[in-house]
Amino acid sequence: MAKLAIIYGTGFGNTGIMAKAIEEGAKNAGLEVMTKRVEEATPTDVERADAIAIGLATYKGAGMPSVFKYVESLKSVPLKNKVGTAFGSYGWSGEGPIVITHMLKDYGMNVIEPSLRIKRTPEADGIEECRKLGKKIAEMVRG
Ligand SMILES: Cc1cc2nc3c(=O)[nH]c(=O)nc-3n(C[C@H](O)[C@H](O)[C@H](O)COP(=O)(O)O)c2cc1C
Predict the structure, then answer these.
(1) Residue 7 Cα to ligand 1 middle (Å)
(2) Residues 139, 142, 143, CA angle at the centre, nearest 5°?
(3) Model pTM score
(4) C-alpha of residue 39 to centroid of ligand 1, in Å
(5) Contact 82, 53 (CB under 8 A)
């Protein structure tokens, strides 16, 4: 079964709600999914994955530093041609997922754009968008 790793950073839980809904959408579309908070994640978590989704909230005009550090630590992992995407909750500017999208592209990943950004706490329509992203990741993995 193809695998998706979802790694995310959140301050107040909104990006975690997104991660959960992406997981649901991907599982319903037949992917095996591992979801972890960035504090518990290591580069090994994405080594065996066919796709990775990186989530992060935006604070003070930038994404969460812990998530940038984690994505930087993936330099030595062969990610070329794997499916990648970034997502996150934000309040007004939402820079975090945009910068991560560039980083994943620099790794040669097959990146789903634009990144999925949802304002504050996801409502029903936002959760549906996240589920759809999970499904889209599954479709991309299958080619
Ligand atoms: C101190 C502080 C700074 C923030 N700075 C930004 C910002 O620069 N740009 C933005 O889009 N949102 C900003 N926000 C809003 C958060 O991104 C928003 O509340 C988001 O839902 C938090 O996601 P989380 O629950 O996953 O941590 C800020 C929130 C706080 C509390």
Answers:
(1) 18
(2) 85
(3) 0.98
(4) 19
(5) no
- b/e burial code for range 38-58 (CB count within 10 A of at least 16 → b): beebeeebbeebbbbbbbbbb
CATH architecture entry for 3-142: 3-Layer(aba) Sandwich (3.40)
Q: Give the number of residues written for the chain.
A: 143
Q: What is the DSSP string of 18-65?
A: HHHHHHHHHHHTT-EEEEEEGGG--THHHHT-SEEEEEE-EETTEE-H
* CA angle centred on 111, ends 35 and 116, rounded to 5°: 65
List pLDDT tens digits, range 14-30. Answer: 999 999 999 999 999 99
Distance CA 4, CA 134 (A): 9
Q: Give the residues surrounding ligand 1 with Cβ less than 6 Å away.
A: 10-15, 57-61, 89-94, 120
